[in-house]
Amino acid sequence: MTLSFTGWQKRTLLVLAGFAVLALFALAFTAGRVSAAPSYPGSSSADAGFARDMQAHHHQAVEMSMIVRDEVDDETVKAVAYDIVTTQQQQAGQMYAWLEEWGLAQSSSQPRMEWMAEASGDHAGMEMGSGGESMLLPNGLMPGMATDEQLDDLRSATGDDAARQFLELMIVHHEAGVDMAAAGAELAATDQVRELARKIEAGQQAEITLMQGMLDDL
């Protein structure tokens, strides 16, 4: 049987076919946009936890370096302090920008360092206990962080005494930073976080060796 269409029927079919083609294009475009949308880490992810906690760690390292920079005579100690300020300020800014890009708050109700619970190995004694207790120190600080009293003592010190206190505090600070960075490199899901974590781990480990030698020479 041969179908025949009148002129208006043909025009109607052409219009409907056009709408169908447009609908297919719209569907394909929408699907492409959805599939291309970036997938960002969540607020409770290791990526976000690392970015928040390492920022806090970096901020105190910068603070200690700024305190001692003008109080010591040793040019090598001054150079180390300056390097810590410039490097860690840049890295902290990078982590701040990540959280902004991911649409996440800079702070969280999640306890600090909880994201490290699944890391393998012992991270400077920061492993979670069998009951899942906090990794924080009894005083509530993250491992490696100087207390207010230690910071006050550093502010009051001058010369070689300031240099010695700074190196002692910063070595402990870096040791904890290395372990946090190792956990970040292991647990983070995004390449950019893992890359920065590995960079921090290597850089601070090298600075620990340098500062230990400087401390021995004082």
Automatic annotation (TrEMBL):
Residues 47-215 form the DUF305 domain. InterPro entries: DUF305_CopM-like, Ferritin-like. This is DUF305 domain-containing protein.
